[in-house]
Amino acid sequence: MSTVTVAALEKANLPPAHARAINETIEIVAQPKRRKGTMAAALRCWIEDRRVCLGLSDQRQVSFPAAKYPSLANASVSELEEVHIRVQGWALRWESLDEDIWVDAAVCGRFPRSPSVAAV
After folding, report:
1. Alpha carbon distance 98, 103 (integer Å)
2. Is 86 exposed, middle or buried (0-12, 13-18, 19+ CB in 10 A)?
3. Rounded average pLDDT over 10-19
4. What's the rounded Cα separation, in Å, for the pair 106 and 117?
5. Nearby residues of 98 by Cβ (< 8 Å), 6 or more positions away
6. SS3 100
């Protein structure tokens, strides 16, 4: 977390109370925003029976059907197995399919809408 010392702010001719208030504000702003969802990263990913399986940092194991994603629905098993964990476990990437999936979205069941639903 990035903070500014009170001494550095005092050198800017700010009263100590203002310097402390500014420093506290900087600390609050520097904290990452929490999103609703799992907040668990993927440590492991594998394919079983056309399901994408994840081992998560909170010790859970979850899976979802590859068919939930249009780019994965028609992929061969060997293409599905070419998945890579990216962004420190927050995303899955299939380079040959040009598909990226946020782990949090998949774990929470936030899948893309199918074309037939989107057209209605």
Report:
1. 16
2. middle
3. 59
4. 19
5. 71
6. strand
Cβ–Cβ under 8 Å, residues 28 and 20: no
The total number of residues shown for the chain amounts to 120
Rounded Cα distance between 86 and 99, Å, is 12
Angle at the Cα of 117 from the Cα atoms of 38 and 47, rounded to 5 degrees: 45
pLDDT for 19 equals 54
Non-local CB neighbours of 3 within 8 Å, separated by 6+ positions? 23, 26, 27, 30
pTM for the whole thing? Answer: 0.64
Q: What is the mean pLDDT of residues 50-72?
A: 95
Helices marked H in the chain: 6-11, 16-30, 70-73, 77-80, 103-107, 115-119
